[in-house]
Amino acid sequence: MPLLLNEEQTMLRDSARGFIGDKAPVSHFRQLRDAKDATGFSRDYWRTFSEMGFAGLLVPEAFGGSGLGAVEAGVVMEEIGHTLMPSPFLSTAVLGVSALKHGSDAQKADYLPKIADGALLTALAIDEGAKHRPLQTAMKAARSGNGFKLNGAKAFVVDGHTADLLIVAGRSAGAPGERDGLTLFLVDPKAKGISVERTAMVDSHNAARITFDDVEVTADSVLGDVDQGGALLDSVLNIGRGAVAAEMVGLSDEVFGRTVSYLKERKQFGKLIGEFQALQHRAAHLYTEIEVTRAAVLKALQLIDDGAPTAPAAIAVAKAKAGTTATLAVQEGVQMHGGMGMTDQFDIGFFMKRARVCQELLGDSNYHADQLARLKNY
Amino acid sequence: MPLLLNEEQTMLRDSARGFIGDKAPVSHFRQLRDAKDATGFSRDYWRTFSEMGFAGLLVPEAFGGSGLGAVEAGVVMEEIGHTLMPSPFLSTAVLGVSALKHGSDAQKADYLPKIADGALLTALAIDEGAKHRPLQTAMKAARSGNGFKLNGAKAFVVDGHTADLLIVAGRSAGAPGERDGLTLFLVDPKAKGISVERTAMVDSHNAARITFDDVEVTADSVLGDVDQGGALLDSVLNIGRGAVAAEMVGLSDEVFGRTVSYLKERKQFGKLIGEFQALQHRAAHLYTEIEVTRAAVLKALQLIDDGAPTAPAAIAVAKAKAGTTATLAVQEGVQMHGGMGMTDQFDIGFFMKRARVCQELLGDSNYHADQLARLKNY
Amino acid sequence: MLGIPRTKRMETLMSDLDQFRSETRAWLEANCPPEMRKPMSSDEDTFWGGRNAKYSSEPQRLWFERMRDKGWTVPHWPKEYGGGGLDGEQTKILRQEMAAISARLPLVSFGISMLGPALLKYGTDAQKQEHLPKIAAGLIRWCQGYSEPNAGSDLASLQTRAESDGDDYLITGQKIWTSYANYADWIFCLVRTDASGKKHDGISFILFDMTSKGVSTKPILLISGKSPFCETFFDNVRVPKSHVLGTVNRGWDVAKYLLQHERAMISGMGERGAGRPLGQIAVDSIGADAQGRLDDAMLRGQIASFEVDEAALACAAERAVDLAKAGQAHPAFSSAMKYYGTELNKRRHEILMSSGGIDALEWESQRSHEGARPRAWLRTKANSIEGGTSEVMLGIVAKRILDLPGA
Amino acid sequence: MLGIPRTKRMETLMSDLDQFRSETRAWLEANCPPEMRKPMSSDEDTFWGGRNAKYSSEPQRLWFERMRDKGWTVPHWPKEYGGGGLDGEQTKILRQEMAAISARLPLVSFGISMLGPALLKYGTDAQKQEHLPKIAAGLIRWCQGYSEPNAGSDLASLQTRAESDGDDYLITGQKIWTSYANYADWIFCLVRTDASGKKHDGISFILFDMTSKGVSTKPILLISGKSPFCETFFDNVRVPKSHVLGTVNRGWDVAKYLLQHERAMISGMGERGAGRPLGQIAVDSIGADAQGRLDDAMLRGQIASFEVDEAALACAAERAVDLAKAGQAHPAFSSAMKYYGTELNKRRHEILMSSGGIDALEWESQRSHEGARPRAWLRTKANSIEGGTSEVMLGIVAKRILDLPGA
Question: Which positions in chain C touch B66 (Cβ < 8 Å)?
Fold first, then answer.
């Protein structure tokens, strides 16, 4: 398969770009932030997004979706990266759908059509410590009657404050660090014993800390097999990582574009600053990094869609590379904008903040480089 | 103490610079290399060096030396770094003397005056594997009668092929990786069971691989205390590391100076290449790195002379930093010299080769950064 | 050539200094209130002086007044201007003894750190008499009017104009990045007194009261949140010509002199080597493995490499001071240090963010001290812009130290 | 907008290609000698052709002759010039099938990789008839005369002059970095035919026989040891004017076209992703800890970061080919790839040196294969110089892709 978007993917991109660029430019995000909007995203836009088929992008056609794959998810995420539009696309349309596709027939029939309709929002609750370490999951999932009782706390639950359904990783057996013994649960955030605290993040996007205090869940709420959630979780996380990497490509591209424009308009010492060779070389280097990253991310998404055994390594590469490239892009962006880049009035700082969050989200560059080394046995 | 050379140290530097720069410029080294000289250094020059007091620089005055310290050793090493003069200064005057100073009165009386006279050469035999890991010493030193029997192999023994006395780290107790159980031995390289293979190195300096096959040594040949050689070894290695770091400062400085000169004389595209801002910024960065490194190395050497408890951390910083700076200096040096920098006819490649060897010598930048982390408990 | 006897003449000198040290130690012990011996943890802990100065606590007032009375708000200034009259070695000892008990600075001000040195060098007797004692006594708080929206790195292209009107100038224009302009009593300011020649000529360095008619300020919100920076506007502000510091149209000399002080200050901004090692801060949030090593091998490596660089920079800073004392310092070396120090400080805060992980992403909660870590991180991004960008610093090194052509 | 049916027209096309693939596979299986299915381990394993060509083995001769007879030394060239007449997809399949059995290239030559494309684009019919078949058949070995001692990155400032003398030129000057000039039969060469105008004008691209009177060569010793590079001297070498390729004084166009091919080739030089992972090579010499991780945590981190970059570059190289096929490639993108690929390859070899440690410092022993590792390391330092320096590549990206002013 060529490492290019095909015709349909290009149309999808144009369509996403049209909507996101027109309706939700960075000023839309700024407005939500300044208003300290309680939801953190526009429900109206999400409705339109759903009508356009984006909420159900990955939902199988049998359940009312488009049945598309990781590449298409990446296409949309990249456009989101350009304007930082807050939306439940990642949490619900990517992570939620990817998880629920592994559910029982009943679970799929229950949830997937509602997601495609834009009527149901989900959130994936994995992280517990300061860093993304899914195997370190410690949340207790003790058998209790016919079901389980959950105890523990989750952090960095993206869109956790608006979710209608939580997908929660618990430990039903084994010890933190072990792969066996993980189970995924579908949990109603209104269930007794759950408390959700929205966390105000540096990027003004949405996340929550959620504590579970003797939360009872039935056996029906298990997603996949008990104790065997590790593989399912990997597959869900990997598509999420690819999607976040795609967002970082869009973000890097946007920052870079704005920076190159600034180089062509800002004068210092009687010259356009883009005439200074030191900046030219740094810009050319950054350009190359972004193009290299773009290829790595597309490749990883294609391999996921192919079900290739090399997909996990490719995702580790993509997420690691996208993280370092986005970090470089925003650092160069702020520095080359000089003092103006430091002001809240300029948008460039938003990208720096979002890039930092995207780094941590689903594992930072260090985590994924380490994963690559493990996969290659060294 | 100010982080500057004092008056005497400045005079010492001028004196060393006078001799080394005049008598042993890089062409002297080139000549030895081209001739595949069997000794690898000029014995005549070593004699003069000794007469000037350099061989006995660290030898206590009571044993015919100048009783100076690590800073002064660094002063000479830095000058050596400028011209790559091959000499036994590191192996004998720095490492050998620093080790023998911890010897018994008899050992000191036996060896130190001869070193100061330029009549005795020593070599320190530590490394066994691919990387410098002194605690991993595995060479067996089994008790045998009144003495010990040595079995094993040493690599990267600087000046091992010309040494009159080997100072050998052996394991008299414990297992590789343990600190206790190391003992240092003074061994005659002509002893039965020893075979010395001179290794031709990338930098055309001198090193040897030495194998020990049932080599008998007496109890008198133990340097310091049996099983307790670790601390002694640390102190010897640390002064050696500081000395090599100083050599790398000299080397970096020399390469940088040559490169800046080239930037001012080579024309391309109708300009001196030093007019290109991208190169200017890289040169300015490298300048800063070298100055920062210079300060770190001098500080570490001063702390050694002070017997400060912070000396080991400072040495780790100095050797780690000197390694990365020298690597950067030679890489920029070759690149900025373009094709000419790649030719054997230009000297610049010699510095790249020597920098690589200095990196590995007594622990590379990674080793020392790791040491720093251990010293700081993380 | 070897074995030259060590010089002995330092010894008598040392005993004088030793005595100064013990007296100073005793005085500090007796006079520095215990509350003033803790690291500053908020802006409130800094006493800035000025017409509207407020003490945040009684110990703060006591400590300031005692130090002021001894002249030790500006220990190295001449006594006639309210200083302590100490020489370099004595000043260093005072700093060391203060550091030893973690004593806070009694007074922080741009008057001390920036304007003062320029006044001492370029001021007329009248100007020195007028301004220095008030700075030393914390009576007047100063701000700096340098940058303009279209004169950032290219400071000399500034446009704020001072038109001659009899014995006065009428000043009109806009400044930006004026720290604490909204709290300052007076400003030292670069203005264009002659627009006909080269841009570096025709600039004058002038002092005036911020309550003058036509001065207004507006705070700037940064990506890290609230900031001390302001936009400052001058609309026909009348200033006597006698308020020019140095020669008219030669203000660039004064500015350059002062910038070197600023750069040296900024290069010292990182928390180099002080406090808890970065690796242990990371262990606090990420944990350690069985061997006690940070349980993120990649990050541990990055931290170790950083700490090598940071420790080396601390040595270079120490050496820079010693070189300056010995009269061997290159005047442009502060630019190299400013570049290196600020780039390192940015790296430090990237590492702190990575070490904090998810927890370091919170922006407003009490748990996160209102996002202290991410705000500090974002704030450091300005380090390599303010006081001369890294690019400008590298250019200065290339030109003035390396003498590269066309730099 | 979603759910557009996937296009079906590829399917019939695929079946033709599938058939070509299976035929090719069968032919290779039958005709590629087993000895030619191993990676090349020394220079001897490469067959370069030429008047003095020697086969290092009988299988080498057989394999070359069989491939030559099928036109597959240059599979994508037209059959009339001795090529295989394959289209892009077929050529790719042939390469894939050869790679699948590790088949060696039957013939390596600058005639194929560099001059050929230029001849096909710019050659007259007579020139094509004269030269292409001899290249395809390995009869003539070519070398490239571009760089001069004072025209490195600034290639267009070359000074070798061609003076008109009736129907001939008389060529005088010096070239440098002429690979294998001492073995080559002919040279393609840039010479100045007009010194009056701008430096890019007045250059011609000319072909001549290396046995011509006045040609001499001298090998260059590199920091890595022996090299294929030579200095090449021309002293009044007489060359017919008909040997100019393309238009007289427009040789720069030909050179640029050809340089793009060279850059694409060099950017592919790294051993990207092929063979044993770097981390395992390091484990071979340094060892692993109890968890199987390389027992040098710092180095492990550097290797992992490198492998991320290298894997990403491999994707970018794949994408560059796909973009080119789709007609969407920016013509200057090869400069970006050349820059990135060569910098990465240098980094790879730094890591290999660090991984080898002490053992990788040996220069001459048999144990070290005569210093293979350090020599390879040193050789990579030229990657970012030859075929256009990294600095020139970045400049091209800045100018042609980013359209930055004055680049």
Answer: 2-3
